[in-house]
Amino acid sequence: MSQFTPYSIYGIIGYPLGHSMSPLIHTTSFQDYGIPAVLVAFPTPPEEIATLFKSVRLLNIRGLCVTIPHKQTIIPYLDYVSDHVKKAGAANLVYWDGDKLCGDNTDIIGFMEPLQQKKLPADYRKVLLLGAGGAARAAVVGLQHLGYTDITVTDIVSDLPEALAKEFNLNIVDWKDRSKVEAQIIINSTPLGMKGKFEDQTAYEKAWFKGKGVAYDIVYTPYHTRFRQEAEQAGWESISGRDMFIGQANAQFKIWTGKELSNNAKQAVIDALAG
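and the corresponding structure tokens:
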């Protein structure tokens, strides 16, 4: 490649951005394929979103990963959104199709992938979803796509599950009664357990895991969350948010480049999280 090949710029937007793995996974993969591109962090306060999208069009930024709190607010700035965005009410990916700026949601694909790979027993039918925010919506769309119909949702903010339950025909339980729900699949879509001030917390106590099942934590930093460790100690299987993260990033990279993430890029994230 001549040194004059212009670099394509991709970005990740969120606020605050913290320790995002997106620059690592995407930039490593661009390099492995010899694609002259780099993905950089753009911490963007909510009041700067309109300016950011002017810049994307002006500077021809080739794509964006989108994280909290922008997944809903960016939708009006796009020329087209996919069915996944409409269903989840959120977009985590911005890409160009010709001169149209488009949005997609790869969280749904990323969420489903580890569940499909596990080939769970047929009698794992009941799902308890802890948390009713943006990540929960993607989880619900994915679960229903996989044929799960018995889903109970709960959240520490008591009025949050209502809209979700109404829209997707879910059951609701009070946060304080969540241990009473019989479930073989329990999903943590709250920030409890995440690196930082919530790290020593869990949304579900160890003593509550009964029988056999699978505990799926959407949180992926740290890799060994308290929720997953305690589920495994109780004899349950667990799925890490790392698998969902790599899955959704792989789907993003595919939309941008037509290629799967390089194995080296996936391993870089696994190593960084293990670090």
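(Above: one complete record from the training split.) The mean pLDDT is 94.
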